[in-house]
Structures are given as C-alpha cells and as structure tokens.
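TEACHING EXERCISE
Course module: macromolecular assemblies
Task: Read the component lines below, then compare them to the predicted structure of the full complex.
Student: A.B.
Group: 4
Components provided:
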Amino acid sequence: MSGPHDRQSIEITRRQVLEAGTIVTMSGMLPVAAEAQTSSSQLPPENGSTVQVSFQINGQPSTLEIDARASLLDMLRERLGLVGAKKGCDHGQCGACTVHIDGRRVASCLTVAAKVDGRKVTTIEGIGSADALHPMQQAFIDHDALQCGYCTPGQIMAAIACVKEGHASTPEDIREYMSGNICRCGAYVGIVASIEQAAPQIERG
Amino acid sequence: MTQKRTVDRPRIDAHEKVLGRALYAADQPIPGLLHAMTVPATIVTGRIEAIDLTAAMNVQGVVRVFTHEDFSQIKTTPASRGAYGQPGKGYQPMTGPVVRHRGEPVVLVVAETLEAAIEGAEAVKVRYADEAFSAAMEDDRAGREPEPESELSTGDAEAAFASANHRIDVEYLHPQQHHNPIELISTTAAFEDGELRIYEGTQAAAAFAGGLAGMMGLDPTQLRGVSPYTGGGFGQKNGIQEQSVLVASAAALLNRPVKLVMPRNQLFHTASYRPRSRHRVRLGADEQGRLLAGLYETVQQNSRYDGFGCEHGANPPRMYGYGSWLGSDRVVRVDTQTPGHQRAPHEHPSSFATECAMDELAEAVGMDPVELRLANDTQNDPITGKPFSSRHLADCLRRGAKLVDWSRRMREPRALVAENGDLIGLGVACGSYKGSMTPAVTRLRLFASGRCEIATSGHEMGQGIRNVIAAELTDVLGIDPENLEIRIGDTGHAPQHLTAGSWGTGSAAPAARSAAMKLREELGLLTGSALSEEPVHVQLARTRRPLLEVTVDTIPLGKDGQAIEQLRRGIPSTTGPEYPEFMAFSWIAHFAEVRVETSTGRVRVRRVVSVVDCGRVMNRRTAQSQVQGGVVWGIGAALREAGETDPRFGGVLNNDLAEYVLPVNADIGAIDVDFIDQPDFKLNISGVKGLGEVAMVGASAAVVNAVYNATGRRVRHLPIRIEDLL
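Instructor-supplied answer key:
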C-alpha cells in the first residue's frame, strides 16, 4: 500500500539547479499563455473526457478542447491565460471570480466551462484598456475602492452589472446588490461611492 | 526640509489592479506548469498506517503522488510554520507517518491539469490509527503551561483594588477567528534562471529563500522568494506555510514547475488564525473615576507545538494612567493547528475586554465614558514610567465626540429611539498599537532620462506601501511617481524583512527618505550646487552621467549594525514599543452608532467615526482606506465572525465563506476617518508611527458598547448574535 513510484532524494546540487535552468530556457520557447489562445493545439493534452467549446471571449472568437469538468474560472485562468478573474473560494461564496456571460454576472467558479458554448464571455480584461478605462474602473481609482486589489476585478464586473440591472439608484440598493462580493480589506465605503459616481455614465441593460 | 503633510494621491498600483493586470502568485504565466492538490487528514491525532495510491496513480494526467515517505528528509526549523523563530517548536506535516491536527496535508497529488489533480486527491485512501485528543482549552487533557507567558505590574494592585470605591470584576470571551484574505494561499515553485523561485503571496519573501533552504537542506542562494503583490495578508501570510516546502520539494523532485492553490476549506485548518482567549478584567476607581487599579488575567488556546506568544497584557496598562497594575498572560495547549498573528493579534481581543470593562466602570461611577477616559489620560507609561514619544489620544476623543455628535447620547440605555422604533446606541472605545521599525537596505537609482528605480524591503498587501515609498521620494527629490519603479517583496532585488506589526510605513518611509537624501547629497557634490530648482534628472544629465546610484542601510532607533546582518540572513529584527528614552504607540478613538431592531434583535452599525494619531500621514487617501478597513474588521469581529470547533471531533466546522460569516457591503454603513497628523520625529526622520493594526483596535468594543447603550444588554462574548439580544 505504498506508492509504486521511485523514491528520490530531495537534495539539489548546484549543478542540477543549473541544468534545470537550461531546461527552463528551452521551455521558454514554448507558447506563452496569451499566444496559446489562438493556437490551442500546442497546449498540453486535456485529461478525462473532453468537450469542444466555441465562444466569444472579450469580443474574440475562441474554440477549445477542454476537460468536461473544468469550471469557467479554471478555463479562463489556466487555459486562456486570462488571470484577471480570481479564485477566492471556488464555491460561489466570495465573488472574486465574477465575469459576464451575455452581459449577466456569474460566478465563473460555479459555471461549468462547457456551458459557455455559443455564448459571449466578458472578463475584466475586456471592459477597458490602459489608456481608456471603463468609467467603473476610473471610479474605483478615484474613490480608492480597493486595497490589495485581489477582489477588485470581481467587484468591478459585479458593479457594472449592478448598474445595468437597475440596482444602483440608492446606496442601500448598491450595498444589497454588491453583497455577493466580499472585500476582506474592507473597501466597501469606496465601492459604494464608486458605483454612485460611475452609474450615470453606464447604460442600463 | 519639512515634510509635506496630508498628501492625497491615487494608489500607485490602482491602475494595474482595476485592469486586472496585477499578477499575484497564482497568476504567473509559467510554461509546463503542473498542478497539485493536497489530501487533508480526517483525524485529529494519530498515525498513518497505510496509504493506498493505486487508484490515484491510475487517474489519467496524474504525474506523481507524494507521501511522507518522499518528504522525510525535510527538516523542521525555527522558520517552519508554527515555530515563530523558536528552535524545537513548529510542525511540518508530511515529514513522518503522523497526524497532529485535523486537516493537515497527508498526500500531495501532482498532475498535468488541475482537474486531474483533484480527481487524484479524491482517489487516495488513507488508513489511520487515531488517538485521544483535546480540541478545547476547557478539556481535561488540555495542557496548561505552568508559567505565564508574560507578566506586567506596578504598585500593589490587589490592595488598591480592594480599597477602591468603585470596582468592576468581569470576564470576557473572545472566539477563534480566521483571517480569510480573499487571495487563497498558493505556492508556485519553478526553476528559472538557475534558481528555484517560490511565488507565494506573502508578507515575508525572505522566508522563502533562507527559511525554505534550511528546511530543504539547500543553499539560500539557490532559492528566491517572489511576492510583488499579496492579495491580503492580515498576518496569515507572515511566514512559510504548511504547503510551501511540500510544493517546493515536489518541483525539485520532478524538475518541473508545480503550483498548488490550497482550497479555502483546507486553509481553515492549515493556515493560521486568531486563537480563542478568556480575559478577566478587574478595575478599581475612586469617586472621581480615577483608575486606582487594573488587574488583567488572560488565557489563550494554543497548539501543542507552536511558539506563538500571548501578549494580551502588553497594551492595556499603557492606555490610561493606572495607579497600579497587575497582569498575566497564560497559554493552554490543545490538539489543533498553530494559531498566529491576525490583524491586531492581541491588541484587538484585549481592547474588546478592557475597553468594554471601561464602559462598565463608567456606568458604575456614573460618568460619561468619554469623560472617564479623558480623566485618566496620561503622557507617561505607568509600567516603565517613560514618556510616550507622542500621544494625542485626548484630541482623538474630543474630535471624534464632536464629529459623531456625542452630546445626543443618553446615559440610560434604550432611551434613544429612531422614528421606525429601532433603538439607537452610541459607544466609544480607544486603542493603541506599538510604534515599531525594522532595518532596510535600499538601493536608489536615478537615470538622466528621468526614470527612477528603488529596491528596498517591504511587501504590498494592500496597505499602500508603494505610495509611502513614492511619497518620500517625491517629497525629497520631486520625482514624478509615474517615472518611478518600486521593487519590493522579492529577495532578488533587496533583502526583505517580514512586513507585519504595523512597521511597514515606519520602516519603508525612513528607508526611502534616507536614500533620497543621500542621492540629493551625491548629486549636489556632482553638480557643485547645493540646491537647484531644476528637476533632479535634468541636473544629473548636465553632469553627462547616465545614472546615479546610492545604497543606504537604515538602522532603526535603538539598534546597531547587527540589525542589517540579521536582515541579510532573513531573520526579523524589530524595535519598539520601548525605546531608550520613551515608549512609542499609535492611538485611536472609535465612536460607533448602532441601530437595533427591537423585534428581531438585528444590529446595524449605521456609522463609525474614527480619529487616529499615527504620526505623519503619508497619503491621506490610502491611510483613510486602511482605517476604514480596520473598522470593517472590528464590525466583523463584533457581530459576525467565529470559527466554530466541535470539541468531540476537532477542526473547524464552518470552514468556508458561507458559514464563516465575513462582513459584506450591506453590513457596513458610513465610516468617517480623521487624522491628528502630527509627525513624531522622535521615532524616525519621516515622523511616522504605524496605522494598519491600530485601525482595528477598540473598534469592536465601540460597537459592543453602543449595543449596550441601545439595549441595556452587556454581552461579554463575541460575536454578538441575535439570540443575545432577544
């Protein structure tokens, strides 16, 4: 009842470290995650039962062969290199993984990736650019509605949806409809102020 | 040069963060990355008799399954989880066929994909021989340490208490709490450029070079700890985790990069937490409310093997001018995972107990609780007799009382009623946190192009340390923060000291300021002109040099050059609160306004006003956010958070974010923050004390005291729940 594999010593010699460095230099020629989006054939093989999904990601068409069990969050992060959506609980309890599917907010950790076939997925990477921030992104900077920044992509995606749903007309409404996104640093006062600032600039859905 | 006060600038990394481009540990794009998953122990204490890996090995995509047999050479050292620097303490799971706490990792599955790693972990079968244990300090088998962890005293407190006109003798109970930063603790180990790099969101990158090297029997130069962004730490990420050495060793054995993102439910058992504690508070006062005696005994629930101290008694005697004091802190050991520092580790629970007791004393004496505190204000530490470097607590109290409109508070509970019938309560409480500093080695480079690079010690976990560094460089050199690159949290750039204990600003600001002043001096020597209105890089360009570099060691007050040596070896070296000439603390006064629904007992914190004396405010915007965050933590502790353990089975029952209730947006009302903003130059050249932890100290007590004012119910445990008020 013990592992059938070989036992190795975990001593690493200087030479092994250097050798490993050589290996890494070589593997540096493999496609990086961002490039892999367009050349999925170069990705390592998926395990178990796989399924093909075709969807739009931030306006771009994408087709991937994925593990049928993969969550949308893990597909975004581990297959597409879109790491803006974060894993905070993997149980739909914290909101850090919030993205939009066809304009509606979802917890991507609770969404089976295969479900997005034929849908439009929007992540934090798809709503603004460095020189043209989305009004909600600008408002979060203006009101310092973040500290560590880890929950921020999810907060912003939820905040945009909150406005589009028509739940941003009063601070009480905002607080209620933003309560699915936990900010442990406690930036709630700034988050409410940001949504109040950005709401008039965002079209209702 | 005088420091500019109340700077208000946007958070330096806010742009990257709102774009989702800030790369945290688990976000690093590493080619050929393998995924790992741990199998948690399902017993509390005992032996592992057998592990069946057959099914796991047969899962498609599983590369290797590691057990204690693979990791038996890993050494437990003072850097290991739970040792807190003490030899013989700490515990590293998976180094032998034993289990010492529920949920510890017993198997590590490594696979080509995350899905395969999870399936592999679920397929592992472990046979245990379990043993008797105790999971609560009330249990007969719990081990009470014979000697107190610490004791403080002055005068004959027992006698003074016995003869006092007004006496309070109460016990408060503080529950176990869990940090739960939203960033899960993840470890990625990868060979890059000839070194083993460890990417882990941490407050202590150095632990992942020297510390891990010691556990793995490697040379520290073969490892590099990298943590440019930490997704919240709050003390939980202040060292090597149980998983760190396992992932690093797996990567070394496989010669491939490995990533483990530990699931939240496992983190409740493997990561640190604030332990349960009991606090007996006795206060004696005369007719005028002057504090004649304070007696304070605490008991804290630790694990069997950790070196985590118990310092509840450190701050309370410094809060007021006690005529006499007697305090002791004890530890009781049970079979649980190692507790640790959680934001205001002991200062928060002790402020809950002692500041609520002050409220009870105010009632007994018949004084307003703000007046009682003002009547006992002091500029000297009752224990050592030394003066405080600065203390503007009375100003905090007066300004806060005005901002919250304290005069409307009724002394009688249940006397203020809102239009909808809700009971309104107002409460006050104060807090303090030691003024601490650490050494730094800082390299500052100015390029003739205008670019500027600084490499120093510090970790960015949301407190805004980059703004602090930038503020000093801007103040001294007029550098545009846009052209500034700040390299912190990486042992490859500069020696890294643990960032915790609210010493980040007090260490990074003087380090950046010293480097900036040295660079200005060197520039002056080059240009021959002492002061010029021209931008520094233009002055440098005129000397036809492409760049100017200075390196500065910063040694904190009361330390010598050995502190730099310790820093280079990755060993913490901190100062405070006691210095040769004075004691240094930050101070805060919190005022809470609550509304309580009479039919349901539901408590809403409508507004909190907090006024802080943290020395010079480096950046008003980020400082305000930090205080608001501390208040949110105080509200969470007062009304929501408790890790529930079942003494029959050990372990945390509510080990996820649905059952361990954190404050959400709807729980938080207005939080108004104001600063005294008086520099404390006795402590350092930047005039700063600490902020991150004092922000929380006393906040829960203010809420609890407000609940009493609203309802007339003295709740002496946390959190206050509906059933306590019905």
